[in-house]
Amino acid sequence: MVKAILSVLPTSVFVGESGKLHSGKVRKVSVSMPEDLAEAVRARTGAGGFSRYVSEAVDREIKHDLLGDLSAELEAEFGPIPEEIRQQTRRMWPNYSEQ
Fold this sequence. Notes:
about 0% strand, 5 helices
């Protein structure tokens, strides 16, 4: 539930004003992935967008991890979210499901 609440906070709360986790410099790396996944990325990106697509996916995943870290810190400091607040947020975001 904290993740649902935190999802509406601006990214700058946990990654800085630019919203980017990187400096803009690039480094060539080798990544192994299942062949069908690589083909799906290539089908979406065409010839020149594979690296950008993967970089953006990794960027999103790291931001998600940071949200999880922040959520854990908030819960450790302030305790779990009261049930009444959980119910209120479920009404505000009826299509959200906890994972």
